[in-house]
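ingest -> validate -> predict -> emit
validate: passed (alphabet ok, no gaps, 393 aa)
predict: started
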Amino acid sequence: MAAGVIPPPLHAHRPTWAEIDLEALAWNLGLARRTLGSVPVLAVVKADAYGHGAVEVARALEKERVDWFGVALPEEGVELRRAGVTRPVLLLGGLAPAQADLVLEHGLTPAVFRADQVEALDAAAGRRGTRVSAHLKIDTGMGRLGVPAAEVVAFAAVLARSPRVRLAGAFSHLAAADDPSDPFTERQVELFLGAVQALRSSGLALEAIHLANSAAVTDHRAAWLTLARPGIVLYGYPPSSKVSPLPWRPVLSLKSTIIYLKDVPAGTSIGYGRAYVTPRPARIASLAIGYDDGLPRLLGNRGHVLVRGRRAPIVGRVSMDLTTLDVTEIPGVRLGDVAVVIGGDAEEFLGADQIASWAETISWEVLCGVGARVPRLYLRGGHPTVASRFGRL
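emit:
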């Protein structure tokens, strides 16, 4: 087999895949723990673990004895339970009242911030002859979801009317923690702690109070409280260039292969809209990857990928399934060569943050954008442990 071609576990697939380094994932969790000291960790694995594959990521983190998992939706929590994940799972985005029975059935911990959510959970618990634990989401300035901090005592009356719902925790989300100089974070911490004190004065014994996202893990010790919720840093990226630098290790690499090569004369147009015309004779390579696979369309005529350890410019528009490169200046390129979209090759490295810069977005969106049809290959020590998605054909 030629060096650099697609690894054997994925021979049955079209030649585009993501590699997930489970050792890097464990390193990042360990780094978060060393930073936080004794504060327990809720690992955020919503949005399919930011594109890394929630089931395998959660299984790996559970082996590392992570304390909690955080997802956005009940459906995401159910997926983890059906995969055998047993650690507590918090539904950060709450639930639709009609999902109350589903939540109880799978032992999930919902966030609540509306009266009808509490009432639906109370009724579902009554039908089952049990109780359900929930965390109250408090809005301290993000302005999306949550009971306003000034109204938590009034909301406590809703909980008092629902004896089968036990409020086990409360949390909020920081809006500007990725800029350590912004005083708004300190204001949010004050509002949250005040709201928690008001709830406790109302007779609610909260076990878990949590506020710290990835940025707060690195720069806002006052937000650590009884639980921390690292997200993007677990996958190897800082939340901004302003936070304190720590040696996070990127977990995901995205790769494709050259499936067609052609030599073209000057003046040849490439791709939709003739967005690129060769200024000289050129060697053009076609990759089996497009914007449905996680290569942003905006990278056309501005981004690069790595081929044989060198940067090859993307020419023409990125299309849904295919992308074209100019490899004229890279000697020896041939069919089957690997092109690294995210990750390292020889001395070069392209991170999701670099892709995000070219695409005028953020690393979260780049990672979450790696499409469902891209198989994930999970590695330990550089060796495959399991390949998920699009099982063998």
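The first helix runs from residue 22 to 36.
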